[in-house]
Amino acid sequence: MRAALERIVVPTLALLASAVLFGLLLAFYAHVDPFEAFGLMYEGAFGSWFSWQNSLTRAAPLILTALCTALPARLGLVIIGNEGALVLGGVSAAAAGIAVTNAPPLVVQLVMAAAGILMGGAWIALAGGLRQWRGVNETISSLLLTYIAIALMNHFVEGPLRDPSSLNKPSSWPIGDANMIGNIPGADVHWGLVFGVVACVLIYLFQRFTTWGFAMEVIGGNPKTARMMGLDVGRYVLLACGAGGGAAGLAGMVEVAAIQGRANASLAVGYGYSGILVSFLARHHPLAIIPVAILLGGIGASGGLLQRRLDLPDAAVVVFQGIIFVAILASETLYGRVWKPKEAN
Amino acid sequence: MGNSGIGLWGVPLAMLAGAIRVSTPFIFVSVGECLTERSGRINLGLEGTLVMGAMSAYGVALASGSPWLGVLVAAGVGLLLGALHAGICQLPRVNDIATGIGLMLFATGLAFFLGKPYIQPKAPNLGAIELGWWSSIPQIRQALQVNYLFVVGIILAFGMAWTLRNTRWGLIVRLAGESVDAALAIGASVGRVRLIATSIGGAFAGVGGAFLSLYYPGSWNEGLSSGQGLMAVALVIFARWNPVRCLWASLLFGAAGAISPALQSVGVTEGYYLFSAAPYVLTLALMIATCSPERSLRGAPGELGAVR
Question: Is the domain defined by A34-338 classed in CATH 3.20.20?
Fold first, then answer.
């Protein structure tokens, strides 16, 4: 009970502290009334259906990329290669889409999704496998793999896949308007949001109710015990990393098939890095990822309104997100200390 | 183009020039990160420190007219960000990897927020030493323009290696990184050592950023850094936690970064992007070759959880 209350009180305190810090920055540096700014931020993030749609659209890639950190974290692995899995997932989805561009749209979309998921999954499974069988640290290797992935994207987008008519911003050939996955009926939000929410729920059910999910929890708790119980740790590492990378790869496919229509440098704009932090803020819980991503997506969505009404730089909301990230991460230390056990006093 | 006069010789020359110019921020960031990691702490937020350093150096140089004051302020800003990282990571149960990435996003955002007014105006440049005075070929003269900070970086790398090996302070830093128990046994405060080492590491990264905005490319904009701060982490591993090897690795990474534009300028238009991945592939290959499930990387500080 106390633990459950803590899980609400501690992040709320951290959020309040972030708001105070950001408010001070606005009041004393930018000379803006912080209360007016927060009001506008609420309006721009969740104040109307239009704002909600904007926020949800921004949350979609964060939900999917967060899973890339959250799933391996269940086994005690710290994966930070989300950006690389997203980028390569997007490039391979585009390549697959271009290859079968004349097939019926549903076939094209399924092929693209499969290509994105497989590529992203293989990329992160590589980091997991290196960890398991070569002892290479997965955090560093996944970071290195991200840079290799971005170089590969530049190579393909400016080389083999390049559409010669894309002059200013080298891009791959388009996948074709007919093959775009479009929006959820009745909303200006693309299907990536549904993919993300469904993935989170499925993963939650998997972790909570299946033997494999339980085995992963055992491995994360104590790998030695797990090995003594005869669990094949390597298989679970590959599974968790592959599924997490697959989610990030799917995020890349969604960027291509729902927004850009082609692969280009817009894939590597930092969703992967934000996803890492969303996962940490959600304490790697698949269901908690959804509200955290929507909150951060909402803050991002409100940047435009702050810029128009108060003439604040668009980076203002990035500063606020950064303060929130750091404050909530630092607040981890408060767990178990807000209420001191009576015996200790 | 200017390179046509000396033909294919332009490629190695451009790589030399690139190694000197591009590597300077790498030297500062990696030598700083090397010190931080030797004390047993990893800082993934140096990318943000670098960008904040670049912005504050540019702003101060613009306001005061003195680029060197800008460098000094950049070091101070880096020091503060490093201290913030160390202070937060010192709290129990706080994850240093996530905090580093969080601070990276925070500092980058803050730099863009505070640096908005500096995008247009032109700040004074740091200036360079002309080592190519003996040559009449402009390309050589240009390649051998060496910035003062490059020289400072070389001295820092050797000085850091010497300090770590030969002084009492260096011993304490290494102890804090190798074994907390041993450090406690000689009465050193591990927390304070790491706080100081991380702050100094941050200050170096700030100076690296000042080089970007005040010398090469020599302006402030939001696309200034191309990930040099995060690359430093790879670089320190590639250099196996030795400051002098950090220097060589920085030159190598700088040359690898310069090879793509150099090849482009002589008409090679295909595949050059793959060269920019070479440093990472090399680092990964090195990790795969020297790691085994039984032991971690040779030369890695024992307390550095992030590479175990």
Answer: no
Residue ranges of the alpha helices (H) in B122-271? 138-143, 148-166, 168-178, 180-185, 190-214, 228-238, 243-265
- Give the CATH number, domain containing residue B67: 1.10.3470
Q: Which tens digit of pLDDT belongs to each residue from B165-188?
A: 999 999 999 999 999 999 999 988
> Chain A contacts of B293, Cβ < 8 Å?
132-135
The secondary structure of residue A79, as a DSSP letter, is -
Q: What gap in Å lies between CA B70 and CA B61, rounded to an integer?
A: 5
Q: Cβ–Cβ of B94/A140 closer than 8 Å?
A: no
pLDDT tens, position by position, A114-136: 999 999 999 999 999 999 998 89
CA-atom Rg of chain B in angstroms: 20
B270 contacts in A (CB within 8 Å)?
159
User: What is the tally of structural domains in chain B?
Assistant: 1
User: Does B93 contact A133 at a Cβ distance shorter than 8 Å?
Assistant: no
A217 in contact with B, Cβ within 8 Å: no
All residues of chain A having their beta carbon less than 8 Å from the beta carbon of residue B88 are 326, 329-330
Complex ipTM, two decimals? 0.92
* Residue in B with minimal Cα distance to A18: B106
Residue B130 has phi, psi (to 5 degrees) of -90, 100
Whole-model pTM? 0.92
- A227 in reach of chain B (CB within 8 A): no
Q: Where are the domains of chain A?
A: 34-338
Instruction: Sort out which chain A residues have CB atoms less than 8 A from B104's CB and list them.
Output: 273
Q: Structural domain of residue B81, as residue ranges? A: 23-243+277-307
